[in-house]
Amino acid sequence: MNGYNKNIKSFIQISYIKLINRLFYNPGGQVFIINKNKALSANRNIKDNYKLGIFMMIMSSVCFALMAAIVKYIGNFQLMEIVLFRNIPSMIIMPMLLKKKNIPLFGNNKFILSMRGIFGMIGMIGMFYTYKIMLLTDAVTIQKLTPFFVIIFSGLFLKEKICFQQIPIFLLAFLGGLLIVRPGFRIDLFPAIIGLFAAISMAAAHVTLRYLRLSDHYLVIINYFAYISGVTSLIILLFQRNLIIPSLPDFLVLIFLGIVGLFSQITLTKAYQLAPASLITLYSYLEIVFSIIFSVFLFREMPNIVSISGASFIIISGYLNYRLRVPDQKI
Description:
It contains 14 helices and no strands. It is an all-alpha fold.
């Protein structure tokens, strides 16, 4: 009789989990209501999708490279005004999408969501500042330190395994980045420190994305980031009285920056939800490769053999890292 009751109890628990997943599960791998331990346990059992996560990171790299080029192009605007317009499309679109999908606006893990927004905002402001002040190649080089901090943070806070064989692969990727950007080291100390701090902040924000996959929908995460960054930049502009109404051509460029930024956040967030941070973060180095492509078409700058060699190192290191992390999967 006890065994019969135990089977009935087990059947009810399994049926409950299936019901929760049927009602609240979505392709991104989130359960919208995570107040029940059973639902959270079911969500943790969702398998990662390495290939799709890598694809999302590559698309994110495209968007971030384009965004860097746009920021450099409109560098005459106030920094906070660029940050504001970068977030305006997200601030308009995200709440409508959340309402349409019946997703709670404020999410579940409000503290981590807020931390992700704050870290992301600090990183974005510092990153945009370096794009405006420093040579773009120098700024990109400092930004590419972010993956190294992501690996450290994911090992410390997410307990993701970091194998010794990854170290030479990351060094090869960073060497490829150096060959591409060939940075000059005659830079002012203060912008370099700001860029380094931005890289650390962006790494912390990236790691929280992996953590939040267990509790919140990716649209909620993006919405938090957009409003924390957008409202903060607007308050600073109003306090400093530096808000300038742009001309129509500049307005269109700024709105385009916001749209590109929205897509960069969607793809970045999905990438970290679909695969381990220590695996996919390496593919953010492809942003350098795409920056060369945009430089050719937008600024008529042709890469030389050294840049091509650097791009090859990055692609090779990405392949080696993928095979090391998922040796049993076929590409």
